[in-house]
Amino acid sequence: MSISFGFEHSYARALPGFYAKVAPSRVRAPTLLKLNHALCDELGLDARALQATHGAAIFSGCALPSDAEPIALAYAGHQFGHFVPQLGDGRAILLGEVRDRAGQRRDIQLKGAGQTPFSRRGDGRAALGPVLREYLISEAMHALGIPTTRALAAVATGEPVYRESVLPGAVFTRVAQSHIRVGTFQFFARHAEPADVKRLADYVLLRHDPALVSAEQPYLALLDAVMDRQIDLVARWLLVGFIHGVMNTDNMAISGETIDFGPCAFMDAYDPGTVFSSIDEGGRYAYANQAPIALWNLARLAETLLPLFDPDRSRAIALATEHLGQFETRFAARWLSGMRTKLGLTSEQPGDDALVQDLLDHMHRSAADFTCTFRRLAAVAGGADAEDLRCQFHDPARFSKWLQRWQARCAHEAGSPAERAQAMRAVNPAFIPRNHRVEHALEQAVRNGDLRAFERLAQVLSAPYADQPMHAEYAEPPPSSFGAYRTFCGT
Ligand code: AMP
Ligand code: MG
Q1: For all residues of the chain together, what is the average pLDDT?
Q2: How far is the CA of 157 from the centre of ligand 1 (A)?
Q3: What residues pack around ion ligand 2 (CB closer than 5 A)?
Q4: Is the CB of 117 under 6 A from ligand 1?
């Protein structure tokens, strides 16, 4: 095929020996189900040509752009706290890197395009349901303004995949600022020379943090930068009720993008202990554990960098400890600033922390819907009747006391009520990927080959902060008949 993507291969050139060259496997009957035209434009790709002719072949791995050099990356990782020295791309194949319109380097990777030397016992394939799920949720995250890997395409393969049942197969095309994970560093630290860890760290600095190359202590600065990105990311997750579900070190990207959407889900009723993943029995990755787990993962990253911090090991450990020691305060500040914004507060007052915590306690006791509560609070800020909000709480009279406190606090703010309501709507989404809506869309697609529910949901989720009165039902929590929700890693 004569089509070219303008690929570069900086990772492959800089780090030979830490990946395997591997061609995607052909599939029987590729059909392009979804192409992200806006993202194509961002990446300088010709969406119309891809849609009309080459898309199915390219995004299934049946035909490659002429400048692709497909590779599977090596990485290790702690899975639920247990170290696995070799994981790697078992069913993902990196085609190359493009420069987007902003000059940012972006990886284009096929997921589910066949076995690689890292597949272990896996088939290298993906099923349609999880592919569409990642498409929906990663694009919803992007629309919410949360750093995330993106969805470029979904292709049906026309072949079955064998899980607990026989399912239609699909290939997902993922775009990321890079696919370098904490687990990538762990792989290098475990299997390579210290000089190779340094090569990886230097590559990451150049790719993600070029301004830090000339820092006095570039590797500590790198740790700080990765930490800051994780603090921002996890705070943003908490602020919209997102639960990643499998924060293993191989699923934490150095870029600070949300990656790996296997068992993730959004919380409906507020409960800090919420866990959706069926395999997370101990609740290691529960909603409220996500910040401490991010810190735990960062400590694993720091361990791989110790020789770069200082040749003296105890001195290096002291430096790492000192830097990671700032996580909790910085996270708390980032989270509180996000919560203030959600409450329409632009100034800082000493009692704000308690004001936020008391609201969350009310929500927890009443199992109030996380998203609806904040969105309705925005309406109340603008002068709407508070009844819609109050009725979410078991003890409306008691909640009214909190409401009065919040309104008194707002009275000290500069803007008008209308401005406050608008600012609050801009950070408190009306629409999140509700589990029952996602399940319905996937079921229609997988059982009946009907993508209309998927398309409609994707459309609604592309403008989560808009009111969209014609789609009001998508803002509603699930009916009680939906029951407790479980998610599965078996993607
Ligand atoms: P994940 O749960 O998606 O983070 O994957 C964990 C590890 O299992 C990674 O090394 C994946 O590449 C690998 N893996 C997951 N599913 C498959 C599959 N169907 N075939 C081969 N490898 C897989
Ligand atoms: Mg993963």
Answers
A1: 97
A2: 19
A3: 251, 260
A4: no
260 carries an active-site annotation: no
Residue partners of 168: CB distance under 8 A and separation at least 6: 127, 128, 156, 157, 160, 161, 446
Residue 77 CB–ligand 1 contact under 6 Å = no
- Give the residue ranges of DSSP H helices in 241-349: 290-309, 313-324, 327-342
Between the CA of 345 and the centroid of ligand 2 the distance, in Å, is 37
Ligand of minimum distance to the alpha carbon of 75:
1
Angle CA(430)–CA(437)–CA(426) in degrees, nearest 5? Answer: 15
Cβ atoms of 172 and 111 closer than 8 Å: yes
Q: How far is the CA of 48 from the centre of ligand 2 (A)?
A: 31
Whether residue 490 is predicted with pLDDT greater than 70 in this model: the reply is: no
> In this predicted model, what pLDDT tens digit does every residue of 79-135 receive, in sequence order?
999 999 999 999 999 999 999 999 999 999 999 999 999 999 999 999 999 999 999
Distance CA 149, CA 455 (A): 20
Radius of gyration of the chain (CA): 23
CA of 243 to the centre of ligand 1 (A): 20
**Quick one: which of 333, 247, 351 has its CA closest to 296?**
247
Top mutation candidate among 119, 134, 181, 258 for ligand 1, by most atoms within 8 Å of CB: 119
Tell me what the mean pLDDT of segment 359-384 comes to. 98
CB 489 less than 6 A from any atom of ligand 1: yes
Q: Encode pLDDT of 133-172 as tens digits.
A: 999 999 999 999 999 999 999 999 999 999 999 999 999 9
Residue 472 phi/psi, 5° resolution? -55, -30
Q: Whose CA is nearest to atom 21 of ligand 1?
A: 122
Tens-place pLDDT, residues 401-429:
999 999 999 999 999 999 999 999 999 99
Give the model confidence (pLDDT) of 432-458 as tens digits.
999 999 999 999 999 999 999 999 999
Query: Residue-wise over 208-241: b if at least 16 C-beta within 10 A, else e?
Result: bbeebeeeeebbbbbbbbbbebbbbbbbbbbbbb
> What torsion do the CA atoms of 146, 150, 156, 161 make, to the nearest 10 degrees?
-70
Predicted TM-score (pTM) of the model is 0.98
The pLDDT of residue 126 is: 98
Among 209, 250, 268, 280, the active-site one is 250
Tokens standing for 390? 């109050």
Q: Which atom of ligand 1 is nearest to the CA of 124?
A: 20
Cα separation of 201 and 222, whole Å? 8
Alpha carbons 17 and 403: distance in angstroms, whole number:
60
